Amino acid sequence: MTTPLDSSLWGRLDDPAADAGHTEHPKRKGFFTDTSVCIGCKACEVACKEWNQVPDDGFLLTGMSYDNSQELGASTWRHVAFVEKPIDVAPPVDLGMPSLGAPPGDDQGAASGDSGIRWLMSSDVCKHCTHAACLDVCPTGALFRTEFGTVVVQPDVCNGCGYCVPACPYGVIDVRPDDGRAFKCTLCYDRLKDDQTPACAQACPTESIQFGDLDELRERADQRLAELHEKGVDVARLYGRDPDDGVGGDGAFFLLLDEPEVYGLPPDPVVTTRDIGSVWRHVGAAAGALVALGVASFVGRRR
Amino acid sequence: MRERSMVPEPEFESYYGRPILKQPTWKTPDVPLYLFLGGLAGGSALLAEGAALTGRPELERVARLAAAGGAAAGTVALVHDLGRPERFLNMLRVFKPTSPLSVGSFILAPFSGLATAAAASHLTGRLPRLGRLAGLGAAAFGPPLATYTAALIANTAVPAWHEAHRELPFVFAGSGAQAAGGLAMMLVSTSEAGPARRMALAGAAIEILAAERVLGKGLVAEPYHVGRPGRMMKLARRATTVAAALTVVGGRSRVASALAGATYLSASLATRFGIFGAGLASAKDPKYVVIPQKERLARRAAAASATH
């Protein structure tokens, strides 16, 4: 049974695994996805599918740039977004990409002949929120907080009620139609238990996806952000890194080069359960009003 | 990419116009029907106990059957909606106050049992004392059953539902009273239907007032005004007004009472389908997520810079 303590529902919470009852546990694990070095190779998508034996969910050609997997879902646990954004000037900035003798001062746009278009690529994943709405609303206990501070669905318990689906402020988890149950990224729970790196991070050739202890990843991200700002990349910002944000910070957070909504991410997500106290108070008042109404209906003259 | 050039109002960016939130996978008509049946059953349990206490056997019979029948049909709808119906009992594995569906399962299960026992005892005349006790229990669980479903949809990231979390419980309480009173008005002779009339009328008033506040919430409430859900909501409001007028003007006419009752029922049903549909529409369009969240961020930034 969950204790509805305020810090368990919302706000800063430094140790979600302990809050969930893991007395002795490893450090909180997570992803730092640095989209400034993502090359859109989709190795993460493939590695995830292969390792986790995630079934296909259709082979559509969408016309949305190079993105045919479209969005995270029950059978897409890593999703690489491709944004082709028209810009006025392409500032030649060395993003620190691993290079093999590319001409100095090269910038992606001008060299490939499509200047005026800025490419944004980003590998999205379940955020493994500190305050996870999917977990909070799951009525069966199928969703749980692991000892690594991650959020995982137990397929043998899930009864496919679908409550987690509209609860997630990021639109990550979904029900697999032919199966009936909900699925999402497990942050490779099985590999973690074996001291291994999650498949997507292992497969990433540019270290855009970095896996590790969350506190260390946050430090590394802060350094990277400072480095980019120093180089004049003012648009760089961290997303989901702040432990005081609406979900208590994400276990999987990002460095973005544009507004979050450009990548299909909510600008200011809040865990719905923040308001659960208010919700129940109003339900209680309304139920009370209904009782009063029922009693009043029988009072008065008999007719 | 800039998307939705067909929508001229507030500029916002999105990823190819795709939704940010997932569409609820809850099925139509299962879930809106369940919202309606929960209200009908919960309100009817109250009516049944009142009728028993004040000696109105005809009203008691109809209300007891409505409470039991509504709960049974609602349970069927709810189980049918599951992706793995055979695992329905997993709902009772844990009790989580953060999950209205968990809390609701612990309301629905006892309510169904108690309402069924009360109805069975009333119909067969067996174990009358236990039957009454069961009826009292059902009456206690009835109002929570009619209102918790508002928490169910409000405790999501869906803007049209979540931002209405203070008002929806009252909309549902009023709508449930309206449905329970309406059904009894249809089926009970006017000499005993007085409480049902009063319950429906008061429920209609609460429902209209609370819904009015939901509809006035600006951009997040837009899905309640447009498209099919918008038409449903409008239909519901008109039907409620007509039913209320019929109740007042029709007096003790049996025909007017039955007509008003049927109209109350359809209004309650339309309200549930309208609210449910508006939530689906709200999750589908990224503007309902992006624009209010950007405004919130801007307000916070302005407040922060004001203090420095």
TrEMBL record, chain A:
A Pfam family annotated for this UniProt entry: Fer4_4
Name the record gives this protein: 4Fe-4S dicluster domain-containing protein
Record keywords: 4Fe-4S, Iron, Iron-sulfur, Membrane, Metal-binding, Repeat, Transmembrane, Transmembrane helix
Listed PROSITE patterns: 4FE4S_FER_1, 4FE4S_FER_2
PANTHER family assigned to the protein according to its UniProt record, in alphabetical order: FORMATE DEHYDROGENASE, NITRATE-INDUCIBLE, IRON-SULFUR SUBUNIT
First-listed, main subcellular location of the protein, grouped into a coarse class: other
Domain 4Fe-4S ferredoxin-type residue range list: 29-57, 117-148, 149-178
Localization, UniProt: Cell envelope
CDD domains reported for this sequence: FDH-O_like
Transmembrane segments: 279-299
Organism: Nocardioides panacihumi
Keyword Nucleus included in the entry's annotation: no
Domain of life: Bacteria
